[in-house]
Amino acid sequence: QLQLVESGGGLVQPGGSLRLSCAASGFTLDSYAIGWFRQAPGKEREGVSCISSSYNTVYTDSVKGRFTISRDNAKNTVYLQMNSLKPEDTAVYYCAAVQYGPGWYRRVLTSWGQGTQVTVSS
Hints:
- 0% of the residues lie in helices and 47% in strands.
- It has strands at residues 3-7, 10-12, 18-25, 33-39, 46-51, 57-59, 67-72, 77-82, 91-98, 116-120.
- It has a six-stranded mixed β-sheet, with no helix packed on it. It has a four-stranded antiparallel β-sheet with strand order 1-3-8-7, with no helix packed on it.
- It is globular, with a radius of gyration of 13 Å.
- The N and C termini lie far apart (40 Å).
């Protein structure tokens, strides 16, 4: 079963940074597009960023210029570097394999993991 495990969340002050990791178990990531999602309390899960197998990237407007997605196929891991964090970035962050392209956030190929909590607060 394809499974991804998220890590790296925590409590950070506004303006701070975190780097999230998404590691694969049981398969290699290199042929898959990987998306990062987040779900804030009382809100629907939303797509944040996606990286294709050929390293093309997309970002939702609210994180452009602040978040950077990357992948290290040798480590079978995808990262989300989050800078200039804001309280509205507070959410549980998830990763999943997806079909790259318009509407990638609706084409999830793997089941959801437990996610990693990101809390931005002073």
